Amino acid sequence: MFESILITIATAATPLLIASIGELVVERSGVLNLGVEGMMVMGAVTGFGVTLATGSPWLGIFAAIAVGALFSLLFGFLTLTLVTNQVATGLALTLLGLGLSGMLGEGFVGQPGIKLGNLDIPFLSDLPVIGRLIFGQDPVFYLSILLTVGVAWFLFRTRAGLTLRSVGDNHGSAHALGINVIGIRYLAVMFGGACAGLAGAYLSLVYTPQWIENMTAGRGWIALALVVFASWRPWRVLAGAYLFGAVSIGQLHAQALGIGVPSQLLSSLPYLATIVVLVLISRNRRLTMVNTPASLGRPFVPDR
């Protein structure tokens, strides 16, 4: 029982972790993309549809990553090239993704999905408690951990990561030093979109292998909150994703146990937890200001 709960928590946390890590890189470059929800739901419908057509979950995952990156390119073109408002553009991208995915996925409703299988490492997967939890998960779970390690190393141990952070902290000074601010931000935005597409595909191919309209159910917004919760640090994103995953699974088990609390209130717990965490973080203004990229959300036009 305990092992099953831990496994479901890991499964619930994985899409949050992937989407949050992608958005963290985007925001470290100084761009605020509120379109994570839209890119996730487009990744979910694309991954499910391509998998259904080809019979290969891996093709579905690659297609979802590509669609997420393409959607992010649209956001990048509007905000980085045409210098539109980042907040309004991100919200528009979310609305576009929700509407377009509903239209594209209309024929997928009720169709049985093809689940991406778990790894099965002989002997190790059979170990008590940790066997299935550590050695018997799906491949995307391991990829999410590798992404976290890779992003942490990239941001704080490489020259390219330092350059990206400098663009997010002071794009004017970075431009004066000859750094291609717009190019770096395009790459960061595309990485974030690819991660959001992968997170969406995880929902429709692993978490619940089926297509349901609006199946992301606000996870993109939780991912955005997680970046702030983690104060733009990858390892804190990992901890936060598993904390929110535990809250999500905890409310499901509470409903199954018949606890005398309205199911609607229990279902809202992950979102209430998001609000509470953001309120608590906002009270420590010094911690927030120290880690927030100084150029976050600010438009940049060369030589202006």
From TrEMBL:
Entries under Pfam families matching the protein: BPD_transp_2
Superkingdom of this protein's organism: Bacteria
GO cellular component term of the entry, any: plasma membrane
Main localization of the protein described in the UniProt heading: membrane
Organism: Allomesorhizobium camelthorni
Protein known as: ABC transporter permease
Swiss-Prot/TrEMBL keywords: Cell membrane, Membrane, Transmembrane, Transmembrane helix
GO molecular function, a single term: transmembrane transporter activity
Membrane-topology annotation of the record: Multi-pass membrane protein
TM stretches of this protein: 6-26, 38-55, 61-83, 90-109, 129-156, 177-203, 215-232, 239-259, 265-281
Keyword Cell membrane: yes
Annotated compartments: Cell membrane
